[in-house]
Amino acid sequence: MEKINVAFWNLGNLFDTSLSSSIASDLEFTTQRGWDDTTKEKKTENLAKTINSLHHGKGPDLLGLCEIENEKIAQDLIEKMGKQNVYAIAQYADSPDIRGIDTCLIYCKDTFRFNFAKSYNINFRYPTRDIFLVNLTILQNNAEISVLVNHWPSRGGGRFETEPLRIGVAENCARAVEDLVKVSIDELQMLPDNMRSNGEVLAKINQKWDRNVLVMGDFNDNPYDRSILNYLHATPDKNRLVDWKDLFEHPNMRKWPASRQTDKHNYLFQHASLYNCMWDLIPEGTIFFEGGFDMFDQFIVSKGLLEGKQGLKIDLDQIKIDDSTKMVNHIHPETFDLSGEGKIHPLYRKSPMDFVYLKKVQDGNERNLPSGRNALTGFSDHFPIQSVIDILN
């Protein structure tokens, strides 16, 4: 059976060195603070080596990224991997994020055909990252997959203070999923009120319900947090992902008064449940945050991709947090910088995880290298995550 190797990685502020309108480029990642061509090239090289090492050295066929500034640096990363003839970038979209960091999807040209991409803009009082949707066709069996790459608002400023922001993005992401797996209101109006007894109608709505959807990203929340469980409706319970006939007949389906209730009404108000692939890995984590590990980086799939309904099936036994680079070992609190609001990141100290510049400059004073660290070493403050999708005949 042929397989698709999938990975996602938060690259940890991969910026270029050219002038930009983003605040991060203007204030954070500057030559004066040690971010120059040398540091950028070395960090990109370190990231590229790690990506090439994923999936036992085969590398991913499908790679979601976040905290990457623009298409040019995505192309630089591909070149550092030596994969210019292998990979393509899926229609890079610059989001309006205030820090200038985007989501991105890279795919193997021998495995996929690109169909279309779409950005879902999130409207807060300040600009933030888009949800990036890419639709692809697998060349081997013509199965389609829709991939949603996410990077939800951070916990900087406090977990509970910022939770409403992530809930807002979760609602947007859930809506994007339902655009893929449910028929539109216009289509629904053409269907009969009694849908459960009509085999043709059930086949039509289940065909869309069973589409292959992969939601990946850095959600800045754990699988058990409200944004994921209650708003994105990503569950560890496979029994919640059922066909429409069972949903129509379920007693909890009734959301309208009996005098007005029809299957069409209930179809509108039934949310699409997703399956979160990361629960079995807890208490492992993908980032060290606020005194412990958190599972912020996740793979979440639709019913169709979980069950192999339309030519593709996620292999749950192959979900993995990759720490083969030994980016973290013997972590203890003194390894981490405790400054900042609600954050602990492995910056400026001896953690082998995050990338270290030649020098750091703060308030006009040069900061020495962290104890036990060499210049231009490290990767990101997140681990990459891996999964495998089986291509069915």
Summarize the structure.
With 393 residues, the protein is α+β, with helices and mostly antiparallel strands. The protein has a domain at 3-150 and 213-226 and 282-391: 4-Layer Sandwich (Deoxyribonuclease I, Chain A), CATH 3.60.10.10. The protein has helices at 23-28, 37-53, 71-81, 159-181, 185-189, 199-209, 226-231, 244-249, 263-269, 303-307, and strands at residues 3-14, 62-68, 87-89, 102-108, 112-120, 131-138, 144-151, 213-218, 234-235, 274-276, 287-289, 292-294, 297-301, 312-321, 360-362, 365-367, 385-391.
Could you describe the 3D structure shown?
The protein has 393 residues and is α+β, with helices and mostly antiparallel strands. The protein has a domain of 272 residues: 4-Layer Sandwich (Deoxyribonuclease I, Chain A), CATH 3.60.10.10. The protein is built from ten helices and 17 strands. The strands form four sheets. It has a seven-stranded mixed sheet with strand order 5-6-7-8-13-10-9. Strand 15 and strand 16 form a beta hairpin. Helix 2 crosses helix 3. The longest helix is centred in the middle third of the chain and has 23 residues. About 7% of the residues have low confidence.
What is the total tally of β strands? 17
Q: Return Rg in Å.
A: 22 Å
Which CATH architecture of the domain at 3-150 and 213-226 and 282-391 would you pick? 4-Layer Sandwich
Report the portion of residues in β strands. 25-35%
Q: What class do helices, strands and sheet pairing give? A: alpha+beta
- Order of neighbouring strands in the sheet with most strands: 5-6-7-8-13-10-9
- Counted by DSSP, the helix tally is 10
Fraction of residues in helix:
10-25%
CATH class placement of the domain at 3-150 and 213-226 and 282-391:
Alpha Beta
Low-confidence stretches: 326-351
Q: Which sequence of SSEs, written as H and E, runs from N to C?
A: EHHEHEEEEEHHHEHEHHEEEEHEEEE
The CATH homologous superfamily of the domain at 3-150 and 213-226 and 282-391 is termed Endonuclease/exonuclease/phosphatase
